[in-house]
Write a structure and sequence with these properties.
The strands form three sheets. The chain has a five-stranded mixed beta sheet with strand order 2-1-3-6-5, sandwiched between helices. It is about 65% helix and about 5% strand. It is built from 25 helices and nine strands. By secondary structure, it is mainly alpha-helical.
Length: about 600
């Protein structure tokens, strides 16, 4: 149980002790810095501890935001400071200095919590100070000021603020106006019944999988029920995040579940639609796989651009300035958010079209919509990159290299290119484009061994692309190009095999590899580094898998190729899932939740 140490003389009639206990704190009283030091030493090293001024007056949710958020090792609001075990040593040093300065005299402690927060700042510890907005948190100096602060507390509805803050600050139009107005109350209902965000996330996944199963029946009733369940799954998907923000129940496992389950739900639903269509005699597996590839590549564009500019220093480009100007006009904000087809709009479209039309029409609409959205967002980011001079850091270059997912073949090619070797091309992006074009041309030829040659050339250029840091203006396009090349190679070869089961096997392989790439993204976002090098080598890297699939297609019959794709898909899935689950469950990675662009 976390411990809160109240410093100074308790104020008669104060609800502070009760508020802290309602937040799960074991409350202890200290009249001076020396007694605070003694009580702090008695708190178990693995528990959170807070130091709070006994004169504090404010909303319970202000205390919750300042003292209980698990994402930060230290946090503070006026009159209160809280640290997790990682920051206990710094807090102990600060309290010891205060105790020595006071000479261990038993005197009332004035503003000790404030001074401790300043000491943690001076100790180069990142102290999180939440934006309280209309919430009140203050330490009144006299009875008159205390009465005024109490009146200010009564003037603001703490629960209403807490409900509003449970909703993501930036979201899509459909989510903001059609889901969040009631899902926040569902989140509160879950919190009051002791449900956790992870339980709600799991319920959302199960609901989506049932929806996929209903779609797989291929009946009109099944499609209608599937559409309804998909939307209910999305409601639960919004609820889990709102529950986490409402009750500050962030966790490492929750971050992983939230990051990966959305994609698992959506792509499982694609598979359900394809199975349902097949029952009706319509083979749409190529469309389902194409939709998954397009959606995954869209996300890689988002991730790569954001990582490339995560800590870049640059002048503001005219394109960015225009974007900011458009954001100041209310209606343009929502139009621009809708046309990129975020998850709310996308799932609503899929659900409605599933219920009213056919899987083929649903996939056609999805492909057209996502293609337009991808073109719009990528073009805007290219213009931003070209119209400003950015200085990118080594961290950004390493993140892009990790997202590229180069394997042993590309690493060998990169070592082969020594710094003194002259090449006509020196741009990483140019090497990547050359490799993708060569591979694409050979795929178009239909000649199996020519395609193998194209894959070899692609592996070599992939290594050359990463033989130097990815710090160019457009080098963030390298990882998306590699994703598109690998995934489309699998799609084309499975389609050309022209045998039942080849495209579903290809769907499984791309899904397994895509999971690995999403896992890489969220490890980087959590500052936990990329997946271990042995895993990337074990599954071949993007160029190794591409070459392997082309060799299998050249050597095997169509039926054998289908079996081989299935075996490779299962092997990759087992390796990446086991390592991913091990990492997220046991590694102690940061509890990072996505509050940025809607996926």
């Amino acid at each position: 149980m976390p411990t809160a140490i109240l410093t100074g003389q308790p104020v008669p009639g104060s609800s502070l002790e009760g508020d802290l206990r309602s937040l799960g704190f074991d409350v202890r009283l200290a009249s001076d810095a020396g007694e605070t030091e003694t009580l702090l030493a008695a708190v178990p090293a693995k528990e959170r501890v807070a130091v709070v001024d006994a004169r504090f007056v404010g909303h319970p949710h202000a205390l919750r935001l300042g003292l209980t958020d698990p994402r930060f090792v230290a946090s503070a609001i006026p009159g209160a400071v809280s640290v997790q075990p990682e920051a206990r040593r710094a807090l102990t040093r600060a309290v010891t200095r205060e105790s020595v300065a006071a000479g261990n005299a038993t005197v009332a402690t004035e503003n000790l919590a404030e001074r401790l927060g300043e000491a943690l700042d001076a100790d180069d510890l990142a102290v999180y100070r939440p934006e309280l907005g209309t919430l009140v948190a203050a330490v009144p100096a006299d009875p008159q000021e205390r009465n005024e602060v109490r009146q200010a507390v009564l003037a603001v509805d703490d629960e209403a603020v807490r409900l509003r803050s449970a909703v993501k600050a930036r979201d899509g139009f459909f989510t903001t106006y059609c889901i969040s107005p009631y899902s926040r109350y569902l989140a509160r209902w879950c919190a009051r019944r002791g449900l956790t965000p992870n339980q709600v996330t799991t319920a959302s996944l199960i609901t989506a999988l049932i929806a996929a199963g209903c779609a797989a029946t291929g009946t009109r009733a099944g499609f209608v029920v599937a559409g309804l369940l998909l939307m209910f799954s999305f409601v639960l998907d919004c609820t889990d995040g709102q529950l986490a923000r409402y009750s500050l129940q962030y966790s490492t496992l929750g971050a992983w579940l939230d990051a990966t389950f959305d994609r698992a739900k959506e792509y499982a639903y694609y598979a359900g639609l394809a199975l349902g269509a097949a029952r009706g005699g319509d083979d749409v597996w190529a469309l389902a796989l194409g939709a998954m590839i397009l959606q995954t590549c869209r996300h890689v564009v988002d991730f790569s651009f954001n990582e490339a500019n995560h800590d870049a220093t640059a002048n503001t480009s005219p394109t960015a300035a225009l974007s900011d100007k458009l954001d100041s006009v209310g209606w343009t904000v929502w139009v621009r958010r809708m046309i990129v087809l975020p998850i709310g709009e996308r799932w609503a479209m899929i659900a409605v079209l599933t219920a009213l039309t056919t899987p083929r029409i649903t996939f056609y609409a999805l492909l057209v919509g996502c293609a337009f959205a991808a073109t719009y967002t990528t073009a805007g980011r290219v213009l931003r990159s070209l119209t400003r001079k950015a200085s990118r850091t080594d961290r950004a270059a390493q993140a892009l290299a990790d997202l590229a997912d180069n394997g042993p073949l590309a690493e060998y090619a990169a070592r082969w290119r020594s710094p003194n070797t002259r090449f006509y091309a020196s741009s990483p992006l140019l090497y990547a484009v050359i490799g993708v074009l060569v591979l694409g041309n050979t795929l178009a030829s239909g000649d199996s061994w020519l395609i193998v040659g194209g894959a070899v050339a692609y592996a070599v250029t992939s290594g050359l692309a990463l033989s130097q840091p990815l710090k160019g203006a457009l080098d963030w396009l390298v990882p998306p190009l590699f994703r598109a090349a690998e995934y489309l190679t699998v799609l084309v070869l499975a389609f050309n095999a022209d045998v039942n089961g080849a495209l579903p096997a290809a769907f499984g392989l791309v899904a397994a590899v895509a999971y690995h790439h999403y896992d890489t993204v969220y490890r980087i976002r959590g500052n936990a580094g990329a997946p271990p090098h042995w895993l990337v080598r074990a599954i071949g890297g993007h160029e190794g898998r591409t070459l392997l699939v082309t060799v299998l297609a050249a050597l095997l019959t169509a039926a054998q190729f289908k079996v081989a794709l299935t075996v490779v898909a299962v092997a990759v899935a087992l390796l990446v899932l086991v390592e991913s689950i091990r990492f997220w469950v046991s590694s102690g990675a940061p509890a990072v939740h996505d509050e940025g662009e809607p996926a």
